[in-house]
């Protein structure tokens, strides 16, 4: 299930007037590209607005937002001349391209793009609204349920996938209440999205079982409801008969196997990753690249650092795959870029924290293209050496992150490497020490040997001190899989590297009690 869903509002100003005796009648068509595909597929259309060069479309585009994917969008504008759905029958007014990340990460939650392929430049405004369904907290009790053994209700929601339109998946199981016909189950909380995925009318099935120690629980009965019905709260509408369909078919006088009554219903707001981004939180992205000799001679095609005139090497592909996504969340597009494990000029000393642009006082490069250019220049001026030490670049980012503790920035360090880490103990200590101080994520790519740093299963520790949070993500994609420009491979890498960042940002903000700031005002809109 995607992290959240966003709703886009589209407006245009100063469109071309293609009509002779009146103004244009604009229509906006949204196209999307599926991951790994260059083909554009139509997603939806707005309504037609008659006689307007400055339309504010009422129709909203509702999209699933995935932070770890590059979601390319295209907006085409037409002047509608007839009722034909065939767009070739209408006058083309222009188009605009962007990513969904650009829109949600834009200042003031408003992105303005010029319409291209038009004889004049018309601004297209895109305003996202992210739903925040929050957590549902509820409690219920049973009456006159069959048998005096413990009871366990299973809450299930439907998975609408052909050919099983009513295939339900479990989303919550209560505790066992023993030896009573009238159990009162403890209140529980569940994300609204997990319960109904934002569809307030989606069927929710509740099953009640008689618990057995050997696991062969006896089915008592079931009932269905919906979020909308539950939202009525404690009332006669939320008293449900627990029915066993088999008994109902066999026994004419069968009514039910008891009842379940809703005791309480409340929805509490849950801050999302998108709330912080729309409130102005910036992702401060730093990249560190492995310049050790284990990568091979850069002049040889077998090297991961080989600069081919025909295609990007594995390091460049990894950087592009991740950088092209995360750059949408940094407004100034200035990215510090470091190298480690090389002998650097002028004296040839080994450095594990040198700026790729050659400027130690300001290692930031403009845009991902600037990082790539600095990386290629560095390859020509340094000597690949070793060992593979991470701690210096981790500490470099930690020092920067420690100066920003208000939640306005969240620091992300991407380490691209091929070799086995040489300073594991020092790196563990650096990661453990950074967590209580600042907001930072360290998703090193691309080596399974470093899975020890990933705290998904066991939190890392150093000198008896455990890590406060899991902020390291080690993808399983081997570096050499990126030796060819295969989009699915690059996108798979980006998903692995970035997938945990939203939850890690939220865990930091929650631990520090930092709430999303109000959405900053957008820049003044172009008047109609």
TrEMBL record:
Keyword tags: Repeat
Q: What molecular function does GO assign, one term?
A: calcium-dependent phospholipid binding
Write out the transmembrane intervals: none
Q: Which biological process annotations from GO are given for this protein?
A: cellular response to calcium ion
Indicate the segments forming the C2 domain, all copies: 1-115, 121-240
**Which family is it part of?**
Belongs to the copine family.
The gene designation is Cpne5
According to UniProt, the name of this protein is CPNE5 protein
Q: Report if keyword Electron transport is assigned.
A: no
Which InterPro entries does UniProt cross-reference here? C2_dom, C2_domain_sf, C2B_Copine, Copine, Copine_C, VWF_A, vWFA_dom_sf
Q: Which Pfam families match?
A: C2, Copine
What Gene Ontology terms describe where this protein resides (cellular component)? Answer: plasma membrane
Q: Which SMART domains match?
A: C2, VWA
Q: Can the keyword Transcription regulation be found in this entry's annotation?
A: no
């Amino acid at each position: 299930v995607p992290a959240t869903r966003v709703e886009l509002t589209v407006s245009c100003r100063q469109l071309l007037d293609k009509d002779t005796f009146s103004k244009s009648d604009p229509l906006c068509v949204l196209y999307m590209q599926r991951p790994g595909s260059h083909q554009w597929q139509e997603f939806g259309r707005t309504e037609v607005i008659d006689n307007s060069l400055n339309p504010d479309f009422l129709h909203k585009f509702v999209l699933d937002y995935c932070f770890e994917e590059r979601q390319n969008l295209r907006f085409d504008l037409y002047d509608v001349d007839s009722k034909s759905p065939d767009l070739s029958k209408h006058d083309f007014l222009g188009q605009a391209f962007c990513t969904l990340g650009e829109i949600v990460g834009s200042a003031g939650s408003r992105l303005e793009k010029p319409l291209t392929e038009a004889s004049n430049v018309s601004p297209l405004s895109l305003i996202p609204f992210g739903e925040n369904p929050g957590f549902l907290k509820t409690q219920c009790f049973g009456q006159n349920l069959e048998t005096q053994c413990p009871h366990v209700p299973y809450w299930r929601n439907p998975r609408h996938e052909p050919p099983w339109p009513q295939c339900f998946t479990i989303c919550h199981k209560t505790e066992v209440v023993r030896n009573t016909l009238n159990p009162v189950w403890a209140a529980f909380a569940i994300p609204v999205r997990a319960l109904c995925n934002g569809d307030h009318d989606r069927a929710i099935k509740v099953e009640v079982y008689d618990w057995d120690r050997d696991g062969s629980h006896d089915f008592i009965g079931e009932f269905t409801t919906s979020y909308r019905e539950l939202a009525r709260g404690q009332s006669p509408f939320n008293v449900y008969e627990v029915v066993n369909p088999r008994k109902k078919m066999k026994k004419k006088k069968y009514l039910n196997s008891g009842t379940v009554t809703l005791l309480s219903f409340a929805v509490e707001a849950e801050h999302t990753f998108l709330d912080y981004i729309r409130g102005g939180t910036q992702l401060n992205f730093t990249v560190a690249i492995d310049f050790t000799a284990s990568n091979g001679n850069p002049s040889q095609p077998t090297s991961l650092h080989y600069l081919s005139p025909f295609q990007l090497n594995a390091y460049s592909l990894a950087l592009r795959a991740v950088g092209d996504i995360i750059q949408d969340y940094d407004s100034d597009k200035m990215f510090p870029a470091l190298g480690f494990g090389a002998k650097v000029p002028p004296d040839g000393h080994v450095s594990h924290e040198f700026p790729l642009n050659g400027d130690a006082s300001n290692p930031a490069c403009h845009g991902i293209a600037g990082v790539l250019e600095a990386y290629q220049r560095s390859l020509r001026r340094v000597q690949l050496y070793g060992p593979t030490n991470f701690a210096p670049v981790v500490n470099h980012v930690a020092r920067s992150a420690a100066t920003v503790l208000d939640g306005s920035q969240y620091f992300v360090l991407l380490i691209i490497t091929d070799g086995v880490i040489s300073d594991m103990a020092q790196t563990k200590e650096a990661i453990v020490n950074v967590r209580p101080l600042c907001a930072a994520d360290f998703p090193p790519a691309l080596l399974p040997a470093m899975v020890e740093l990933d705290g998904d299963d066991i939190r890392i520790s150093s000198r008896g001190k455990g890590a406060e949070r899991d902020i390291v993500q080690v993808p399983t994609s081997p570096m050499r899989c990126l030796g060819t420009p295969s989009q699915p491979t690059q996108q798979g890498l980006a998903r692995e590297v970035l997938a945990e960042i939203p939850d890690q940002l939220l865990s930091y903000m929650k631990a520090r009690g930092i709430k999303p700031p109000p959405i900053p005002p957008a820049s003044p809109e172009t008047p109609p």
